[in-house]
TrEMBL record:
Classification via SUPFAM superfamilies: E set domains
Organism: Methylorubrum podarium
Tree of life domain: Bacteria
Record's protein name: Thiosulfate oxidation carrier complex protein SoxZ
Domain (Sulphur oxidation protein SoxZ): residue spans on this chain: 9-101
InterPro entries in alphabetical order: Ig-like_fold, Ig_E-set, SoxZ_dom
Pfam families: SoxZ
Amino acid sequence: MARTLINLPKTAKPGEVIAIKTLISHPMETGFRPGADGRILPRNIVTEFVCRFEGEEVFRAELFPASAANPYFTFTWVATASSRFTFTWRGDAGFEQTETAAITVA
């Protein structure tokens, strides 16, 4: 399981634009680098990131081998209602990690 950091305000006013920041620590491997034995190491990257709010997709990113080792995303959202965000990272070899974070809009 990879380590994740999610930063968003706990509360917001209706209509307020908030910044959401996420980071996942993942041992990215491009699939082009030789290992100690000279054989090419298999590709192991995060290939997709999706953020949903109440089941509705609000942000999506597709990643490729040139991506950073620890993908960091920052994006904005207009506060509409209190609920939970669901953040999902998917990658090679069946990697999938999901985290949640709540926000109160009042």
